[in-house]
Request: fold
Amino acid sequence: MLLTGGSGMVGRNFRAHPGVAGFDLLAPTRGQLDLLDAAGTRAFLREHRPDIVVHAAGRVGGIQANIAAPVAFLLDNLDMGRNLLQAASEAGVPRVINLGSSCMYPRGHDEPLREEQLFSGDLEPTNEGYAIAKIAVARLGEYLGREHPGWRCRTLVPCNLYGPHDRFDEASSHLVPAILHKLHRAVVEGRDVVEIWGDGSARREFMYAGDLADLLVRAIERFDELPDCMNVGIGTDHSVLDYYVAGAQVVGYRGRFSFDTTRPVGMARKLVDVARLRAFGWSAAVDLGAGLRMTYEHYLREHAPRGT
Reply:
């Protein structure tokens, strides 16, 4: 099995899953396989010819990072995905699991987002470049399957993720790791006010990365049972303020919150429908409190400034 993005959060949590011990796993570094190099990617796939590819590589980041570099988020993710999928089809690799993102869904929906709603409306402007790339790669997987009989690509669409090996900084990270980092700094620096972008009412669904790793193991083992596209989430969401309050309990922050309503917050709500996932027979095991504790413990070991 070839895993791309093996050094990222998803890849590292996947590699730590006990079920991976049963796979003959190839997880090259970027120096060994640069997905932005089309010719090099084709050569790598021809040489190794894995039985299955899990595509977890990508340029990722939070709202600030997406707003600052939409061209890079679009082109890098598009080029990585198309180079890999085309190389896999040309090399005769029969199965690909492609990781999409709930950012692929149109904005303006308050109900849980169903797979049928992909490609059906305007995207959220704050991460549009990233979303366009993910949509294009998912569609390319469908097209290649039509043109290459016996070649199959399945796209999994995870909700927002958090967990060990995430990025913990306010400029480029997603919501949950940014919250833990901000709250930790507030405690260390003795501050009693932490700022929240927006009014705290925007709702998000976050799943522990170790749970996605478990789903990936099951998806590999039962690849033939996967639908062409399937959401992966927990089926419930919380407000941004809820995440700050839960993070404060874990970190030990006892101050108050302020709200900057001039800041961008993205979609008002982003919750995926998990009916197909439940029909597949899988559900997440780690609740928010436990997931935040394990993530914060990792942060303290690996990311917190020394002496804090």
